[in-house]
Design brief:
mainly beta; 6-stranded mixed beta sheet; SH3 type barrels
């Protein structure tokens, strides 16, 4: 579920921190897929000590210029990770 603060994903800065719904820090936003419909966008996570990966925007619960909170707990994250940009 995306709240009103997350409606403009373009406001999220490259370098903003990414956290799971249960508070685990995943890394930083490294890139954002540029598409017309934000609901089909994905973003790349620069994950420390592991390969970077893409997540679909529909995993975002809330976002602002400095932080993204996902609606997914850490133990379910592998179901959403992709090596390439994804479409939700």
């Amino acid at each position: 579920m995306i709240d009103s603060d997350a409606a403009e994903f373009g406001d999220t800065s490259i370098g903003g921190e990414v956290f799971t719904s249960d508070g685990e820090r995943l890394g930083k936003v490294w890139d954002v897929q540029d598409v017309q419909d934000v609901q089909e966008a994905s973003f790349k996570v620069d994950a420390p000590f592991q390969p970077d990966y893409w997540l679909p925007f529909n995993t975002v619960e809330s976002a602002d210029a400095e932080r993204i909170i996902l609606n997914v707990p850490k133990d379910e994250l592998d179901h959403y990770k992709s090596r390439d940009p994804v479409v939700a």
